[in-house]
Give the backbone structure.
Amino acid sequence: MSKTSILYQHGTLALLVPGLLDGTITMKEMLQHGDTGIGTGEGLDGELVILNGTPYQIDSHGSVNIVPDDFTMPFANIHFANYQKLFDVKDISQADLEKKVVSATSTNTFFSIEFSGTFTNIKTRAVKKSQKPYDTLAKTAECQSIFQRETVAGTMLSYYSPQLFDGAAVAGFHNHFLADDHTFGGHLLEFGSASGTVSIQQFDTLEQHLPVNNQEFSNFDFSGHDILGDIHKAES
């Protein structure tokens, strides 16, 4: 099995819903499984974009920071990049981009999109780090900062998860963004149009890693929570 065909995921989005936000893996450990990825820090401490083996955090102030090896996360995706060019686009909308990508692949597989280019009317967000006792994902996500740019050059890094796995991840596209000049980024909420090169990497294996040594996770009863509803509210 080629290591570039594996998507490694630590934690699940479902465990964030009730507020299980402890950092349960370090960045050093995470980088053993890839050089490209996204995630969030302990207590939803900002939004992560990992490119070319360098982990960047966009914090709630909008600053872009390189995080240390001991930075911990409750949730992250990572893989070893081996993108193949899919197509070039000009002034494409977000909705049309997603349709075009899906029509060129399968909605029943995991894949990643790397879109390098220029984006207009782009809106991102980052959440302020919370402390224990943690609130729910929905409540914590209310304490977010919104950032906007009329035009910015950068990379949109996306993971697509099939509907079958909704809850482990968010079904559909999960998009993060980092500007080329490292002055802007975050969880991508929307953009108006974009021009550039779209590349794809498909995975045939999901390696799901769970924080089994975290007692709160191991003992938690998820049955009283609207897991999917809260994930979709927080990620939109």
User: Anything to note?
Assistant: The chain has one domain: 3-235. The helical segments are 13-16, 27-30, 94-103, 137-140, 215-219, 227-235.
